[in-house]
Write a structure and sequence with these properties.
heterodimer, A: about 750 residues, alpha/beta, Serine Threonine Protein Phosphatase 5, Tetratricopeptide repeat, Rossmann fold, five-stranded parallel sheet, 34 helices, 18 strands, about 15% strand, globular, B: about 80 residues, mainly alpha, Non-ribosomal Peptide Synthetase Peptidyl Carrier Protein, Chain A, about 55% helix
C-alpha cells in the first residue's frame, strides 16, 4: 500500500502501525490515515513533528496546507517560539503555512523577549505568504522605527499606504511619519479651506506627496472658517505662507435654499450669487498671496427632485448645476493662478452613491466619504506636482506586449494582436491615449528588445498602428540592456533621467530599471491590457499649469533635432556645423504675454540653470513691473525649426553693479553658443547704462554641473564661494562679451 | 466572528484580540474618526444601513451585535 510506504519513509511507521488497526476499522483511505497520524504527532510531540516537517516538507505538503498551520498554532500555544520560527523558515517555500495571523502572533511573542531580528524574519515570511498582510508590514515598520532605522521605517510606511487605502491605515501612516526625522525632498505648503469637515483628506494628501518625493506641510482652517481666514490678511492662513490653497465649498452649505427643490427663477438667482461669492473669495486670496488657488467644482448631495419633467424645463436642476460649474470655469480661465478642480467628475468616477453619504453629512458634516478620498487626493496632486515642476517629459515604451499583443519576432506583423476587434483593440485604444499625450507636449520614445527590422515594419506599415515613426522622439530597438538604452534616450533628448516614465509589460525589465535607474518613474502596467488606457489616464505626472505654444511644438522640435544631429555628421568642423544651422535668436525684455512660459521655464529647468530659483507667476510679474529688475526672454530658431521661447534671465540693477540673479535655458539649445549671445545682450545693456561690474551668481545643485564653469568661460573671476554658492565678477570695461559670429540677432520673432 | 473581523480589520488588530467586551474605552484606536470608518465597514460587510441613533450607540462589540440583530442580521 502506497500510503503505508509513505508513512514509513517519513518515520511515522510505528505511529502508523498503532493507528492502522483502528483506522482500518472505520475504512479510512491511506492518505487520510497518514494525515491523522501526523495530526496526532503534532499534539503529542510538536517538537518531533516540527523536526519531521522541516525535513519532509514536500511530502507533507501533499497532505493539505493546513497541517503546517496546525503545527505552528500548537507550537505557539506551547510557547515554543524558537521551534515555530525555525519551522517557518524551513517550509517557507511550500504552502504548508498559509495563516499569516499565526506568523504575526509569533512575531509579537518573539518581540516580547526583546528580539528584533527573528521577529522581522517571521514577518517577512508572512509577507511572502501574503504581500498585502497589513499587520506584518506594520510590525516591520515598528521594528525598524524602534531600531532607529528611519529610512527603512519610512519605506515600510509607504508600503503600508500603498497596500491599504482605508482611512485608519492612511491616518496611522500620517501620524507615524510625524515621529520620524524629516525625510529628504522639496517642501510643499498646502492649505485646505472648507465649508465642511474635510480633515480626513490630509493624511491621504500627505501619502500622495510622499510618494512624489515631496515633504508636505499642511494648514487646515478651523471648521467653516474659510471666509474669515481669506478676508483677514493677518490670518493664520497667510502666516502659513501657502503655496497651494484648496478651497472646498459645499453647494448646500453656501446655498441652503436648493435643499428644497427650487423653482427655475430661484435657481437662476442663486447661480449668480454663488459665482459672485466664489470669485470674490478668489480675488481676495490673489490680492493677498501668490498661492495657487484650486477651487473644488460643485456637486450636489441630493438628486434633482424634479422628476421626469426636468428635461422639459429650460433650467432644470442638473442643467443648472452643470451651467454653474461652467460659468465658474469660464470666469477663472483668465486667472493665471486659480483653477477649478472637477470634483463633480471625481465623484462621478467613484460613484455618487459611495461618495456622498447622507449619514456622514448628517452625523459629522462630511460631504466626501472615505471611498472618495484616495481619488480626490490623487487628483489634487495634479496641481501640486505641476506647481512643483514634477511633470514628466517623456514616456519610454516597450513594444511587444505593451503597444501590441504578442511577440512580433515570433508571430510576424500579421500575427500580433492589434486591430479593430478584440484582442487587439485594447492596444489601439492605449496608443490613442499616448498620441493624446504628445499633444500636451509629452514626448514618446521606444525601448524594445527586438530585431529592428521586425519592429520597424510594424511601426511603418501595420494598418492599425496609431503611433508611427514621427511620433517617437527617440527609438532604441536592439538587444542591449534597457538601462543603457534608456540612459542613451535621455542623453539624445537632452532631458534628465528623472523626467522619464518607463512602461513595459515585463516585470523583469521593470525590476531592472527600478534597480539600475531609480530616478525613472517605472510604472507597473496592469496584467490586463484592457486597463492600460485607464492606467495612463489616471497618472498624475503629465499635468502642467499652462500649455504653451512650445509644448504643442515640442514633438516636431525633437524631430528637427534628429536632423540637426545628422547634419553634424557631415560638417567638417564644429564651427562650420554651427554656421550651417543658421541660428537666429531674439532677446528682449519679457512682455506680459509670455508669463506662463517664463514661469514654466523657471520651474522646469534643471540643468542649464545657474541658480535654480523657482520663481512663480507673482514673482515674475513683479520683475516685469519693477524698475529695479530686468527680466529677459530668449527665442531661438534655426533652419530646421523654431525652438520657441527657450531662455530667461533676471538681472537686479544697482547703479554701478548689475547682478545676474537667474539665467536659465532649455537644454535643447545647449552647446550652440546661444547662451553667449544671451550674456552678450545683458553685457551690451550694462555698457549702455554705464555699469561698472556684472556679478554672476551660481548655486550648485545636483543637476547643474554643466554650467559650473559658465561665468569662468566668459571672463568672470570668482569673488567668493560658500558651500557651492558662488559669486563671479566681470569688470565691464576690461572684458567685452560678444555674440558668436554664427548667430544672427533678430528683432522679436513673432509666432512662427 | 464577522463583527470581530470587521473591528480587527478596521483597527489593525488580530481577530483574537477582539472580544465582546472590546469597546471605545478598551481600544485606543477606536476614536471618533475611527468610529465612522467602523460604521462604514459594518454597513458594507452586513449590507445594511444603520440609523444614526443606532450607529452612535454601537460603542462596543456587544452593542454592535445586539443592534445588528434588530436589522435581521444572523450572527
Amino acid at each position: 500500500m502506497s500510503g503505508d510506504r509513505d508513512l514509513h519513509s517519513i518515520g511515522l511507521g510505528q505511529l502508523a502501525d498503532e493507528l492502522e488497526a483502528r483506522a482500518a476499522l472505520v475504512g479510512l483511505p491511506p492518505r487520510l490515515r497518514l494525515r491523522q497520524a501526523f495530526e496526532r504527532l503534532i499534539l503529542t510531540d510538536p517538537k518531533a513533528a516540527a523536526d519531521m516537517m522541516g525535513t519532509h516538507a514536500d511530502e507533507l505538503s501533499g497532505l493539505g496546507t493546513d497541517l503546517g498551520n496546525l503545527l505552528e498554532r500548537t507550537l505557539l500555544e506551547r510557547k515554543m517560539y524558537r521551534e515555530a520560527s525555525e519551522l517557518l523558515n524551513l517550509v517557507r517555500k511550500t504552502t504548508l503555512i498559509s495563516d499569516t495571523a499565526i506568523c504575526v502572533q509569533l512575531a509579537k511573542a518573539l518581540a516580547q523577549d526583546g528580539e528584533s531580528e527573528v521577529p522581522a524574519r517571521v514577518l517577512r515570511a508572512a509577507l511572502a505568504i501574503d504581500p498585502a498582510c497589513i499587520p506584518a508590514i506594520r510590525g516591520l515598520y515598528e521594528i525598524a522605527a524602534k531600531a532607529g532605522h528611519s529610512t527603512e521605517a519610512s519605506r515600510w510606511l509607504s508600503r503600508l499606504a500603498e497596500t491599504d487605502s482605508s482611512y485608519f491605515t492612511i491616518s496611522y501612516v500620517y501620524k507615524e511619519r510625524q515621529k520620524l526625522p524629516r525625510s529628504e525632498g522639496a517642501e510643499v505648503r498646502i492649505a485646505l479651506l472648507s465649508s465642511y469637515v474635510l480633515d480626513w483628506l490630509i493624511p491621504y494628501l500627505d501619502a500622495e506627496c510622499r510618494k512624489a518625493g515631496l515633504v508636505p506641510q499642511f494648514y487646515l482652517a478651523p471648521f467653516n472658517q474659510y471666509a474669515q481666514q481669506i478676508l483677514n490678511s493677518r490670518s493664520n492662513l497667510y502666516q502659513f505662507k501657502p503655496e497651494v490653497i484648496f478651497l472646498a465649498l459645499g453647494l448646500e452649505d453656501i446655498c441652503p435654499e436648493i435643499l428644497v427643490p427650487a423653482k427655475e427663477e430661484e435657481l437662476a438667482r442663486a447661480k449668480g450669487a454663488i459665482v459672485g461669492q466664489v470669485l470674490g473669495l478668489v480675488r481676495e486670496i490673489e490680492s493677498r498671496c501668490g498661492a495657487l488657488t484650486v477651487v473644488h467644482s460643485f456637486s450636489a448631495l441630493a438628486r434633482d427632485g424634479q422628476g421626469i419633467l426636468q428635461n422639459r424645463l429650460a433650467n432644470s436642476f442638473s442643467k443648472w448645476l452643470a451651467a454653474l460649474n461652467d460659468e465658474l470655469a469660464g470666469e477663472l480661465r483668465t486667472h493665471e493662478r486659480s483653477f477649478l478642480m472637477p470634483l463633480d467628475a471625481v465623484v462621478g468616477w467613484v460613484g455618487q452613491e459611495r461618495s456622498h453619504q447622507a449619514k456622514l453629512w448628517y452625523m459629522a458634516s462630511m460631504r466626501v466619504a472615505e471611498a472618495t478620498l484616495p481619488e480626490l487626493a490623487r487628483y489634487s496632486m495634479r496641481y501640486v506636482k505641476a506647481l512643483k515642476g514634477l511633470t514628466k517629459k517623456c514616456v519610454v515604451l516597450d513594444l511587444d506586449g505593451t503597444l501590441w499583443g504578442g511577440i512580433v519576432g515570433e508571430a510576424g506583423p500579421e500575427g500580433i494582436a492589434l486591430g479593430p476587434t478584440a484582442p487587439g483593440i485594447e492596444y489601439v485604444d492605449f496608443q490613442r491615449a499616448l498620441l493624446g499625450l504628445t499633444r500636451r507636449g509629452i514626448l514618446l520614445a521606444v525601448c524594445s528588445k527586438n530585431n529592428p527590422e521586425d519592429a520597424l515594419e510594424v511601426i511603418r506599415t501595420h494598418p492599425h498602428m496609431v503611433l508611427r515613426e514621427e511620433h517617437f522622439a527617440a527609438m532604441r530597438i536592439n538587444w542591449k540592456n534597457k538601462a543603457d538604452n534608456i540612459l542613451e534616450i535621455a542623453q539624445e533628448l537632452n532631458i534628465g533621467v528623472d523626467s522619464l516614465v518607463f512602461l513595459d509589460d515585463s516585470p523583469n525589465e521593470r525590476e531592472l530599471i527600478r534597480q539600475m535607474l531609480p530616478e525613472v518613474l517605472t510604472v507597473d502596467l496592469p496584467r490586463d491590457p484592457s486597463l492600460y488606457r485607464r492606467m495612463l489616464e489616471d497618472m498624475t505626472d503629465f499635468d502642467q499649469l499652462a500649455l504653451t505654444k512650445e509644448d504643442e511644438m515640442r514633438v516636431a522640435q525633437y524631430q528637427a533635432n534628429a536632423k540637426r544631429q545628422a547634419a553634424k555628421g557631415t560638417a567638417v568642423s564644429l564651427e562650420e556645423y554651427l554656421r550651417s544651422l543658421e541660428i537666429q535668436v531674439a532677446i528682449d525684455l519679457a512682455p506680459r504675454d509670455v508669463l506662463n512660459r517664463v514661469v514654466q521655464l523657471f520651474n522646469k529647468t534643471n540643468q542649464f540653470n545657474l541658480t535654480t530659483k523657482r520663481y512663480q507667476a507673482d514673482d515674475v510679474m513683479r520683475f516685469m513691473d519693477s524698475e529695479e529688475f530686468h527680466i529677459y526672454d530668449l527665442h531661438a530658431a534655426d533652419r530646421f525649426g523654431d525652438h520657441g521661447l527657450v531662455g530667461a534671465a533676471v538681472v537686479c540693477k544697482q547703479r554701478e553693479e548689475w547682478r545676474i540673479d537667474s539665467l536659465l535655458m532649455s537644454c535643447r539649445v545647449m552647446g550652440l553658443g546661444v547662451e553667449t549671445a544671451f550674456l552678450a545682450r545683458i553685457y551690451a545693456d550694462a555698457v549702455r547704462e554705464q555699469v561698472v561690474s556684472l556679478i554672476g551668481e551660481y548655486v550648485q545643485t545636483r543637476k547643474n554641473q554643466c554650467v559650473s564653469e559658465f561665468y569662468a568661460e566668459h571672463g568672470f573671476s570668482l569673488l567668493r564661494d560658500e558651500n557651492g554658492r558662488q559669486e563671479w565678477r566681470l569688470n565691464v570695461a576690461a572684458a567685452p562679451i560678444q555674440k558668436p559670429s554664427w548667430i544672427t540677432i533678430e528683432p522679436r520673432a513673432e509666432a512662427v | 466572528m464577522r463583527v470581530e473581523a470587521v473591528v480587527a480589520r478596521t483597527f489593525h488588530l488580530d481577530p483574537s484580540e477582539v472580544t465582546d467586551e472590546s469597546s471605545k474605552e478598551t481600544l485606543a484606536a477606536w476614536d471618533s474618526m475611527g468610529h465612522l470608518s467602523l460604521i462604514t465597514g459594518l454597513e458594507e460587510e452586513f449590507k445594511v444601513s444603520l440609523a444614526i441613533a443606532d450607529a452612535m450607540e454601537m460603542t462596543s462589540v456587544q452593542d454592535i451585535k445586539r443592534i445588528l440583530k434588530d436589522y435581521g442580521v444572523a450572527l
